[in-house]
Design goal:
- The protein is about 70% helix and about 15% strand.
- It is built from 1 helix and 2 strands.
- A two-stranded antiparallel ribbon has the order 1-2.
- Strand 1 and strand 2 form a beta hairpin.
- The longest helix has about 35 residues.
- The protein is rod-shaped and about 55 Å long.
- The termini are far apart.
- The mean pLDDT is about 75.
Length: about 50
Amino acid sequence: MLTLNSRFWRVFLVVAILVFTLERSYFTLAKTRYEQENYKEVESGYEYRKTN
């Protein structure tokens, strides 16, 4: 019973870390996409496009 319980917690921890990593990478992708939409490329790098 104890080994099954610890195994469950190990699997739960791995799944939680996996979900956290995927969510974090998806958030980073969405952030870079948002920045690409709100920045325009100029010769000296990126210049912020005013959205307000």
